Amino acid sequence: MKLTINEIAEIAQVAKSTVSKALNGQKGVSEEKRRQILALAAELKYEPSASAQALASSRTGSIGLLIPHEAGYSLAGAYWSAIITAIAEVANARNHSLLILTPSSGDDVSGPVEAVIRRRNVDGLIIGAEQLAPEVTSRLVEEGIPFVFIGRNPRIQHYSVDVDNLGGSDRLVTHLLSSGYRKIACLAGPEAYLYSQERVAGYLNALHRAGNGWKAVRHTGYTSAEGREAVAALLEEHPDLDALYITAGGEFLLDCIDVLRLSGSDPRRLGLGAFDDYRFFDYIDIPICTVRQPLKAIGSTAASILFQFLAGNTPSQMNQILDVELVLR
Amino acid sequence: MKLTINEIAEIAQVAKSTVSKALNGQKGVSEEKRRQILALAAELKYEPSASAQALASSRTGSIGLLIPHEAGYSLAGAYWSAIITAIAEVANARNHSLLILTPSSGDDVSGPVEAVIRRRNVDGLIIGAEQLAPEVTSRLVEEGIPFVFIGRNPRIQHYSVDVDNLGGSDRLVTHLLSSGYRKIACLAGPEAYLYSQERVAGYLNALHRAGNGWKAVRHTGYTSAEGREAVAALLEEHPDLDALYITAGGEFLLDCIDVLRLSGSDPRRLGLGAFDDYRFFDYIDIPICTVRQPLKAIGSTAASILFQFLAGNTPSQMNQILDVELVLR
DNA sequence: CTGAAAGCGCTTACAG
DNA sequence: CTGAAAGCGCTTACAG
Prior knowledge:
The structure is a homodimer. Chain A is of the alpha/beta class. Chain A contains 13 helices and 12 strands.
């Protein structure tokens, strides 16, 4: 049968409340009894029942990662995969479980959030921030469920971990300029996303600083069809462009390369830049410079901030901005 | 405050046991009361507390996915990422949460398993099967915690979802043969892994059926260093090989391609085959034929089998083998 | 069909 | 410091 706190109490000849205090490191137990009880629990390999503890203390011992469904489109699987691993590592170290929450296909993120609020099955949430409606997070605030953003949301001020989109973009475009390209067009993700805006701003900054007058920006959604159309349009409007900076990576980038190839223009002649790095870029026949995001650090930083909240502390900084790395090819 | 079954009972003017039965679809409630209670609960958006339900019923309402840490090496992030998504989808549909379990770095899989046994925080487990020690799963069996394998384990007979490694391998090598290659070497993963053995067997089958006498097999671990060394050794021992079949994909494959390039031999002249497909193979300058695994189906099938167990049913088939798809380039 | 009661395994005031 | 008791929000025999 399951080993409970009652057995421990009986064997140790103390009240179970004493066992509970000893195990949880609370004051009100003599050092001697504490040692005895701790030793006994270790010997018997006792661990408390997660659900009993959760019910009694109203802390579940688990945190949730809420992945917006659309994330699958814009980001390669590698993105969330690396982040999950990093979060799991931190959660492990803190003796917490990691719940993966994701809307049923077709639904938005409010479903899982409402479920979490009602079922009370996590102590806090890490949330992919883009495309989140303010109503959703205000529910979380009402209910006192702490959460941390990965990325930021233009409509919601909240604690977040993000990367230096502006600086990374600026440095990448500066590199393209220093490589001799002068007509660098920018293909960006949805205009509503903060990181799209920032990456475009970095692009414009770099051009401005270099005194480069030629510019062309186009926003697009992340579906294959939209991306292809956008590249085609850019090529048509600016047949003289000599470089293309795409503010996203993954599958989306591959779609763009497809169109470049089909257009008859030789992509190898074009300067190519992208945000998000993949090792396989080393293996394709087109040199492409990228900005690499510190995925593991994003995950572990977000988790650490959440655990600060759970411990009752408020982080000093609202937005944690992590550095990115330029990968030149 | 939290809306509980007591409030529902009070408003509906019935006992809370009646509410519980109505909500859980148990018999012993008049149709009329059931309708009333269900309507009230829906109106008030009542959902039971996960921890209270777990404690009282000793079912947690969540399942766990146990990812062996080493998986990160041998398989690209895409592998588990796709599987997680598929499992989450099924768990969602069944109103269950998905817990991600992974050993702390450096540890093996027994840590999370023992934690699950003691803390009782999942109803069942989906486990990456390779490299699992029989002692670990026998603990699960003792404790009555149901589990399903993804992949199979040579030392443990258990319910599993796997892909047709043998057939896929056979078909791929047969294709290489029909393309005119005659000296096809096979670089396989660790010999202890069942899928390595099966993929090699498929390779040998294809050669044998074609009456092709030339063969060369080498096993290797999945670290970058081991992989590189193995390719180099293969090239040295068999300078006349005209094709290479690598029974794994992802980062490992990229390491192998590195060595081929460095060796001075032109990889474009070589027939190249691999197990596991990635879209970016379309973009590298070496044509490479692959076997594509149905990742989503692996995840959702494993989850379905687990839920069958949880419902008290035993699947008719012990090993579910899913078809793979050849991708020719 | 209906409801009062006990119990799941903990935590947390509270009294001694 | 120590322990008896109540309570967390459910489920599940059990009696009516």
